[in-house]
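Bug report

Summary: structure tokens for OsmC family protein differ between web form and batch submission.
Environment: batch mode, default settings.
Steps: 1) Submit the sequence below via batch. 2) Compare with the web form result.

Sequence submitted:
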Amino acid sequence: MAVTVKASLGKTKYYTEVTAGENQIITDEPIDKGGQNKGFNPMEILATSLASCTAATLRMYIERKEWDVENINVEVELENFPLTKRAIFKRDISFEGILDDEQLKRLHTIADACPVHKILTNDIEILTKFS
């Protein structure tokens, strides 16, 4: 499944309009980096992709199993180490509901099966062209 996202950045420093189909978000850089902090920065968007995909994947599974879970909370911290070309995602998942140890173990496996998690843990290739 291919996804197409378009980003458009004018002369306003780092204020970027990003569209995917009919949906739009704004990204920006923090004030200390010259932006206006009017939207998520690109690293936050990357962490958001993992957090939101994890939550949705878990919700789909929990609903299919009809387990009693009111809320799924996913917090992702992303640390980037450019000098070593390493990034670390720390994902903390909690649930408001009734789950036993066996269910939690299964949900850990399901969290790792989220499509964004799979992409981030596979080989990644970026092909760039100018047009």
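Above is the batch result. After comparison, the two runs are identical; trailing whitespace caused the diff. Helices lie at 42-65, 101-112, 115-120. The domain at 42-121 is CATH 3.30.300.20 (GMP Synthetase; Chain A, domain 3).
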